[in-house]
Amino acid sequence: xxxTLGLSLLTLPAVAHAQPAPCFDPNAxxxxxxxxxxxxxxxxxxxxxxxxxxxxxxxxxxxxFTTRLCEPMSLSQALYHAAGRGTELWQAAVxxxxxxxxxxxxxxxxxxWARLLATKxxxxxxxxxxxxxxxxRARLVDVFDRTSRGVEEVRFADGVRRIAVTGxxxxxxxxxxxxxxxxxxxxxxxxxxKVVDTPSGPAVVQAAVLPVxxxxxxxxxxxxxxxxxxxxxxxxxxxxxxGRPGQFDVERWAGRWRGGFPDNNDVPATGVVPDAAGWxxxxxxxxxxxxxxxxxxxxxxxxxPVRYNREFCEWPLGTxxxxxxxxxxxDEPTPGAAAAAGSGGDYLSNESMYRANRLRLGLSxxxxxxxxxxxxxxxxxxxxxxxxxxxxxxxxRAIVDQVVALVSVI
Length: 410
Hints:
- The chain is about 35% helix and about 15% strand.
- It starts with a helix and ends with a helix.
- The longest helix is centred in the first third of the chain and has 23 residues, at about 75-95.
- By secondary structure, the chain is α/β, with parallel strands linked by helices.
């Protein structure tokens, strides 16, 4: 039964020829992200997400999770199951990223798609003998999502320096770009639990992978991870995302503004960065990095150049934020001006830096450095029908290894 059910879920209702198991409703609504599980590079080729899950060896993880859902259980048992299997998936992805593999160990995509297969199953799940309401289903999805990202796995060792790092899921996944990877997420997997040698001695790294979703940020996923990390008084917080081609940027400023670009569910968001309930959050417009940016620039890491990016944008004094033309400069923000963009822009990367460091300020973590690192853009395999090629894997490995080297400079 496990193999049949696992394959049914991996190949997905509305895409697979097999019938879905009776404990799943194939007509239940899915998110835009989950709907992409059926996307293919060619009309006769495999669905990209499930194929990456198969190639990475995560089929059994998904199968065990979905099989158990078809056995009798209460909501509390289902929550325990979601938390446990989500944690196991994260740990399996970290192990895979840090050991030799037949399929490239630096590939972050299998974790992303395996997570979506599991959350899809939870949205379609029909428990035996009782009705699962919308609130209970949302809790289940949230628990699995958070645990499978490493958000709940902050475990700092004693006696060494501590660094907390986040990367991001793949994004901009339309058409053949459904095969995109994100070197920031791959870096988080490569770093989680590692001890790196820094100028001030060994440092243990705890990492997580953030969603490219405005709604998850509204619900406080950034604060949840970094809030847990800050209880251990880490030496540094480093948010990492994919930036511009050909270079790394250590961003000087984070800005309190969302520019409206759609997320992975095709949902846009514009306006002031909202608070996350339950956390101290000072209402500052710009937050300046306290990472050792010059040391990171001067460290001589390769192969990409590393720049200190001083750019920022603000709404002119006396205007309503979101109207008119922002003033973009490289000097200092005008006292009293509202932020229109940080050095890293006005998307979720900027917001990850803003939220993490707003929390750092709110908790008066004066000995903790904080800031953002943008990686070079990772391209896609040259053949539009290919999931990978040698150049793609080489470039991702080079970016990730340089992220590790830059974190080791802090």
